[in-house]
């Protein structure tokens, strides 16, 4: 093709892409009867890191949100202010700084528990979703389950919701039953789930898969589990960033949450616990703060959530998370979900047009969130990630801490692009173009 022919082809191609995006945007508007009210440019301005230019001169396009989201300036400021102005331990001394730190820690607990539709008494701070699930395993199941009692988990779980149960199997002889996924639809096999429920004492299910982006039918799972008398633990590490969780209305007994995937800092999360389930729990980690009285003869413990918060609290992190939920509260999470879903389903559709690309999951399903896992049939996932990084695109590669799911999918790893509130269709379009270029060049 001569220079003019090439220019014309490129121009037409651009027009085609632009019109595709315009049409898509109109469709987004039409399908909801109104144009979405999320102001993505204003949202992006809250995240200083999104202006980052990488060492190779490429502008960062951050598509690794399922691993951890970026943090808005208000979160960074709230944490810096604590360290700059009133850094002190909480619940320990009577000086001004200690009072301020204690007040800020407890105010954060009120904000966070309110955001999740429950009370401070039903929330226990943890280091993240992993510790939250371990707290259920070692603070509830260890005290309440006996040999041969059944814990149902799914093949879709993150390792955080598999390994603790395997360890309790070794320690206490509980039975761990795995619900398979349907390998065609990538959804949970609900018939197998109902069979696995027989005599179950606890059902542990991921709300939204970190690999497939699929949201499980948690309402049905809760109802069916409770009908057989089983308690339910939901791993909402990926659910909370795209859906508002209202714990008191949900019916689950335990809900594990991670702050760092929803604009909050790393190192903090919580487990939300129904009052009657909390009353059945015993100490998990022991030491300072969780005690009432210690003598050489023995120890008595605090009651309620205080029994499970051992040692110096995560003060800066709690304050940062409080700022994050305040920031998130300005948005309607249904719109956030719709925004993420529109980007992920559009991206997945475009990726499927690229020869050699396979997508796992069902990104077009209205409940699917922003994780799109994919593989190229001849470019290794690690290599593909490096080639994408060269274009400025940050995606995750590996087994995503979900090796049983990888086994079920018949692959050792996948690439995963995961989108959140600040990502745009323009970024997605640039990503697809770069991916197409890389695949054509290196396949
Ligand atoms: C579904 C799911 N569960 C649990 C976790 C662990 O969360 P945390 O990093 O807060 O321990 C993750 C993190 O990737 C996750 O995606």
Report on this structure.
Strands 2-8-7-6-5-3-4 form a 7-stranded mixed β-sheet, sandwiched between helices. The protein starts with a helix and ends with a helix. With 443 residues, the chain is an alpha/beta fold. It folds into 2 domains: 36-65 and 332-442, Aspartate Aminotransferase, domain 1 (Alpha-Beta Complex); 74-328, 3-Layer(aba) Sandwich (Aspartate Aminotransferase, domain 2). Helix 3 (73-85) runs antiparallel to helix 11 (315-328), helix 4 packs across helix 11 and helix 12 (333-352) packs parallel to helix 15. The protein has helices at residues 3-32, 40-45, 73-85, 96-115, 129-144, 163-172, 190-196, 218-227, 247-250, 275-279, 315-328, 333-352, 381-390, 403-409, 425-442, and strands at residues 61-62, 123-126, 150-154, 175-179, 200-206, 231-235, 254-258, 269-273, 291-295, 298-301, 357-360, 371-376, 393-394, 396-398, 414-418. 43% of the residues lie in helices and 15% in strands. The structure holds pyridoxal-5'-phosphate. Pyridoxal-5'-phosphate binds next to helix 5.
How many strand units? 15
Shape, please? globular
Number of individual domains: 2
CATH topology of the largest domain: Aspartate Aminotransferase, domain 2
Question: Overall mean pLDDT score?
Answer: 92
Helix-strand string: HHEHHEHEHEHEHEHEEHEEHHEEHEEHEH
Question: What would you call the structural class?
Answer: alpha/beta
Number of helices: 15
| Helix amount | 40-55%
Strand order of the largest sheet: 2-8-7-6-5-3-4
| Proper CATH architecture of the largest domain | 3-Layer(aba) Sandwich
Gyration radius, to the nearest Å?
23 Å
Amount of beta strand: 15-25%
CATH C-level label of the largest domain: Alpha Beta
Terminal CA distance reads: 24 Å
Bound molecule kinds, no repeats: pyridoxal-5'-phosphate
| CATH level-four homologous superfamily name of the largest domain | Type I PLP-dependent aspartate aminotransferase-like (Major domain)
Largest sheet: 7 strands, mixed
Uncertain stretches of 5 or more adjacent residues: 1-36
């Amino acid at each position: 093709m001569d220079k003019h022919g090439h220019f014309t082809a490129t121009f037409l191609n651009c027009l085609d892409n632009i019109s595709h995006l315009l049409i898509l945007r109109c469709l987004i508007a039409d399908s909801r009867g109104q144009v979405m009210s999320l102001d993505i440019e204003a949202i992006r301005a809250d995240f200083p890191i999104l202006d980052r230019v990488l060492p190779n001169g490429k502008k960062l396009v951050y598509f690794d949100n399922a691993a951890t989201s970026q943090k808005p300036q208000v979160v960074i400021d709230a944490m810096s202010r604590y360290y700059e102005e009133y850094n002190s331990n909480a619940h320990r001394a009577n000086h001004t700084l200690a009072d301020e730190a204690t007040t800020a820690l407890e105010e954060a607990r009120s904000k966070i528990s309110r955001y999740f539709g429950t009370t401070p008494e039903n929330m226990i701070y943890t280091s993240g979703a992993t510790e939250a699930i371990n707290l259920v395993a070692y603070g509830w199941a260890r005290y309440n389950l006996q040999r041969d009692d059944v814990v149902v988990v799914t093949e879709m779980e993150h390792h955080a919701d598999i390994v603790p149960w395997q360890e309790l199997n070794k320690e206490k002889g509980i039975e761990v039953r795995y619900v398979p996924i349907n390998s065609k639809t990538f959804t949970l096999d609900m018939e197998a789930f109902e069979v696995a429920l027989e005599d179950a004492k606890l059902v542990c299910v991921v709300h939204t898969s970190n690999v497939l982006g699929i949201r499980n039918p948690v309402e049905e799972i809760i109802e069916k589990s409770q009908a057989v008398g089983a308690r339910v633990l939901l791993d909402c590490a990926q659910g909370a960033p795209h859906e508002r969780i209202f714990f008191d209305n949900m019916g689950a007994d335990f809900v594990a949450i991670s702050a760092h995937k929803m604009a909050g800092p790393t190192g903090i999360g919580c487990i939300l616990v129904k009052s009657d389930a909390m009353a059945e729990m015993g100490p998990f980690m022991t030491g300072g703060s969780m005690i009432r009285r210690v003598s050489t003869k023995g120890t008595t413990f605090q009651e309620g959530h205080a029994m499970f918060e051992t040692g110096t609290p995560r003060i800066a992190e709690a304050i940062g998370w409080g700022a994050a939920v305040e920031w998130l509260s300005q948005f309607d999470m249904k719109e956030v979900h719709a925004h993420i879903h529109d980007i992920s389903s559009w991206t997945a559709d475009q990726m499927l047009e690229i020869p050699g690309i396979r997508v796992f999951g069902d990104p077009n399903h209205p409940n699917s969130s922003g994780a799109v896992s994919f593989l190229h049939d001849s470019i290794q996932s690690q290599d593909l990630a490096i080639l994408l990084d060269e274009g400025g695109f940050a995606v995750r590669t590996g087994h995503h801490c979900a090796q049983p799911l990888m086994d079920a999918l018949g692959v050792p790893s996948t690439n995963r692009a995961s989108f959140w509130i600040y990502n745009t269709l323009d970024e997605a379009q640039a990503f697809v173009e770069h991916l197409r270029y890389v695949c054509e060049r290196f396949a």
